[in-house]
Amino acid sequence: MIDQRVFKFPGVKPAAAVMAVLTFIQAFMIIFQARYLSIAIVNLWHMKSVRTIVAPLALFAVAFLARHLLTLAQNWLLYPFVEKTTKTLRKQFMAKLFDLGPSVVAQKGTGNVVTMGLEGIDKIQTYLMLIIGKVLDLSLTPWIVLIYIALIQWKEALFLLAIYPLIIFFMIILGLAAQAKADRQYAGYQRLSNHFVDTLRGLPTLKQLGLNKTYANNVYQVSEDYRKKTMSTLTIAMTSTFALDFFTTLSIAIIAVFLGFGLMNGSIQLLPALIILTLAPDYFAPIRNFANDYHATLNGKNALTAVLDVLQRETPTDRDLLPVRDPVWQANDAIKFDHVNVSYGDADKPTLKDINFDVHGFQKVGIIGASGSGKSTLINTLGGFLSPADGQIEVRGTTVPHLDQQAWQRSFVYIPQAPYLFHASLRDNLAFYAPDASDDAITAAAAKAGLTDWIATLPAGLETPIGEGARGVSGGQAQRIALARAFLDDSRRILLFDEPTAHLDIETEVELKQTMLPVFDNHLVFFATHRLHWMNEMDYILVMDHGEIVQQGTPAELQQQGGAYVRLRSEMEGATVK
Amino acid sequence: MKGFFATFKNDHWVMPYLRRYKKLLVLVLFLGFMTFFCGGALMFNSGYLISRAATHPYNILMIYVPIVLARAFGIGRPAFRYAERLTSHNWVLRIVSDFRKRLYEAVEKQAVAIRQTHQTGDVLSILAEDIDHIENLYLRTVFPLVIGWLLYAFVVIGIGYFNWAFGLLMLILLGVIVIVMPLLSVAVNGRREFQARQVQRTFYTQLTDAVLGLGDWLISGRRHDFLAQQDAPIDEIASLRRADHHFQWWRNFAIQFIFGAAVILLVWWAGVMFTHNQAEANWVAAFGLALFPTVEPFADMSQGVSEWPVYQDSIKRVNALDENEPKQVEQTTIGELNELKLDHVKFTYPGASREVIDDLSLTLHPGEKLALLGPSGTGKSTLLKLMLGDETPTSGQVTLNGEPIARLQDQRAQLFGVLDQQPYLFNTTVMNNVRLGNLNASDEEVMAAVKAVELDDLIARLPAGYQTQVQEAGSRFSGGERQRLSLARILLQDAPIIILDEPTVSLDPITEQHLLDTVFDVLHDKTIIWVTHHLAGINHVDQVRFIEDGHFDMQGTPAELYRDNPRFQSLYDLDRGR
């Protein structure tokens, strides 16, 4: 009924203990409330003077207020624990995200991770707030009330006790039936509910095909189908609530009739009868509340599972094997891959098999291959975003299991096809790796990256906000901003490029190339691309195919050897001559 | 409150549907009212029943009616509730179908504009969510509110029937619960909700930003900054939540407090009113107990209303959608195409000062093939929009056979076929997806088109062949294959002019080359306008034009340009890797 994991949060036990005590007292308040109201009513029934009900009504008022004050107190006492727990969860989640790095995001999806951190944890908060109180209420209140009723009139108590498992039994049976039906329909269901967004997104295509007008009726029809399917599932799902409702309400009616008969033949007095009647709804209230919030608790439970799944992942260890030195990379350093294998979480993504190479100093290493040959995977492994399954990597003579080394990560700049621009000022974006850089240094780096003219056109210069939702930045400029980061932080002597120019038009690429080439000096460069002209700037080339390095050497050597490199080049050149 | 009426002043999304499905609406409200009526009546009747039984009536028949009524109300309450929930969901889902169609039509009219202002599909998800919000507005706010008020009116009138003065007292007292409290909730919560949404949005943006840029954060090694950045919104959200909860708890307590006072007054009043003889005194318990079941619907009203700000936002957004419909131009049609002409076309975006297109003229005849090149932002996409009639030139005009393109929009799909960067595949079968090009095409024609684009082997290998759902096969279709499916559609569409809008931008050179070969092969008899970002496959066309700053820069056949133009020559060589 209650998730065991809830008990693992620090501070849950004292909070629950206090809650239990308050719930216990509250149950008595419920009894007092019923008792004194009944006394007042019975006095009136005996046609006593109105003065005789002053005391009972006052006591009723006290009990009634105490009951609801206790609810207030429960919330008040529980909330700090819940707030602290969710806050801690959120912070732990963020820290974990940083430690796990982009691979977890790639696996779970950006939207999913963001939702988890925001709504997911909100749901956990609601869940924690509900579950502890409701479960305590359910496990204490009905039984205290029942014992009190039994003390007055055991037969009615027996009836109430007997009906309870029946209610739960029917709830479960009908709930399961609804679940089964929902499961069976789920796939079709999901498709129908997504159909609308699907259609909206595909609208430009529909317009191109001249179907935009006729499709409106299709939208309506599909939505109507969805309604019918939903209704048929809801009909069953609501039956479970109906059963609960039916049994509880009818039980109260039956109790009333029982009591009526008992009163007629004199086996019970009006006062106890009225108390029992007043208490009957309170006996059923906890289970009804529990059932009403069932979906909120279910969502919270799922969110908790998802968040804990991320939190319980193992973070890479041995992140400080590579000794810190400034700069990390120098002209006489070497990096060596020895029989390295890399595999992704899911099997159908490309994997790297038996990667061997040995590069040193400020070599320019070109990585070439068709799509899906493993170029990006290799760059990601070099960046430490992916860890090898086996094999050895030797950096500066130190053997490391992976490149997720703190010292290593301070040594390179990573420039993908679309460098990520933060939703911040241009200055913050430029100085992302070196937040303490001076204005002069930033301006100089921007100038080297060829950004000066563009910055002059910006309304607030370096302070102009850029990134998603702010000022648009073209692909070429995004590359230049990433380059400026490299210029700015002189201690980063390694450049990892992953198809930096693939989506740029040829003229922009030419201009960018002029800016890029000077940066290559005094840097170790890994450059994955399928734009062939870059190969002319490289002094070592890795040719990749299906996750393996099929050929490596200087461009001249490879050209001479023939084989994969020459084949690939001619195939790619074929794209430009017919 | 002012905001409330302002929202509905020009509303054509919420109110009209309340009117259109009036009968069902009345039924929902009736069933909802009866649910709580039966709940109250059950306690009322039971109170009377046992009081009457306690007078030891001479014959069981004396209490026969209340006994039957107890069972009737006991069954009635869950039955009505069940019916109410089904009817209200059915009602709302019916409206949702209407909404979706309307939203689709509204978006359809502005498809181009929406694409332009919001590049990602997010806005569409937001709009789809808005519909869900309006759905909840009915279920969680409107229905409970109206049903609560009906119940309130019933209670007040019922009591007023016996004693108008006391009825008036109840009118005021319960009025605090059903009118003042909801208003207070909106006023207090509305402001906080507004704040919370802002913080939430900041956090959302920040978190998305952090997740998308996680790789850079990792490389930067600024773990502390990363965590510190998220702390502020986390704390802010927590404190807003806390304030929100505190308000809710106190409000619920206040509601209970007033409610308790109402019960006490009712009992007191019954004591004064019905103590003249035993027959009257039997009613005291009835009145004393009847009010309890109403506290739940009354308390729910405030909660439902406090969600109003969320709904208000959505209502405003959907209402704003179809307010500025583009003006309609009278349509005509043309026969067989013999000329596409741009005559001194100039274009400036509304509100911008720079001319995107500056005096362009161009004439194309059937079968001619033109390539357009130029850096991004030079007006290539704008030129395509002008040709398709999605935008209207500021001066000059675009004509087909001398007829302005704006007058040919109804015929557009018969004139233009478009293959763009991201062809959209709908979540239906492969067969249906291709058939979108021509709904009247037979299965054989669809298969012939698929064969022409050389996908027949691939489709044959899919688990269900042509009947495979695109979503399930999603990962199977690479970028190039998606383009080919889209090309098959265009073949079925069989329009004389084909627009290729950088269809190969995300493909590797080998895939690109093969795709272009197929495209120009199957479309050999069409007029083609091809926007491209580099020179791969340029020999397929008989005319190349470079756009620079809104006007044509270099032009000629590929062979002429290569011979006479050094700039073209160097770009061409670069593209071939020289």
Describe the protein's architecture and organization.
The complex is a heterodimer of chains A (578) and B (578). Chain A has helices at residues 12-45, 54-100, 102-108, 110-152, 154-201, 203-208, 215-264, 270-292, 294-311, 375-382, 406-409, 426-430, 439-448, 452-457, 475-488, 506-520, 555-561, 564-573; strands at 334-342, 352-360, 364-368, 390-395, 398-400, 412-415, 424-425, 465-466, 494-498, 524-528, 540-545, 548-553. Chain A is of the alpha/beta class and 578 residues long. Chain A has four domains: 1-153 and 292-315, ABC transporter type 1, transmembrane domain (ABC transporter transmembrane region fold, Up-down Bundle), CATH 1.20.1560; 154-267, no CATH class; 318-411 and 492-578, Rossmann fold (3-Layer(aba) Sandwich); 421-490, Rossmann fold, CATH 3.40.50. Chain A has a six-stranded mixed sheet, sandwiched between helices. In chain A, strands 2-1-4-5 form a four-stranded antiparallel sheet, covered by helices on one side. In chain A, 45% of the residues are buried. The model of chain B is unreliable at 115-121 (pLDDT under 50). By secondary structure, chain B is α/β, with parallel strands linked by helices. Chain B has helices at residues 2-9, 15-20, 22-54, 64-109, 111-117, 122-162, 164-212, 214-220, 223-273, 278-290, 295-305, 308-321, 380-388, 412-415, 430-435, 443-452, 456-461, 479-493, 509-522, 558-564, 566-575, and strands at 340-348, 355-364, 369-373, 395-400, 403-404, 416-419, 497-501, 527-531, 543-548, 551-556. In chain B, 63% of the residues lie in helices and 10% in strands. Chain B contains 21 helices and ten strands. Chain B folds into two domains: 2-320, ABC transporter transmembrane region fold, CATH 1.20.1560; 340-575, 3-Layer(aba) Sandwich (Rossmann fold), CATH 3.40.50.300. In chain B, the strands form two sheets. Chain B has a six-stranded mixed sheet with strand order 6-7-8-3-9-10, with helices on both faces. Chain B has a four-stranded antiparallel sheet with strand order 2-1-4-5, covered by helices on one side. The interface between A and B is large, with 148 and 161 residues.
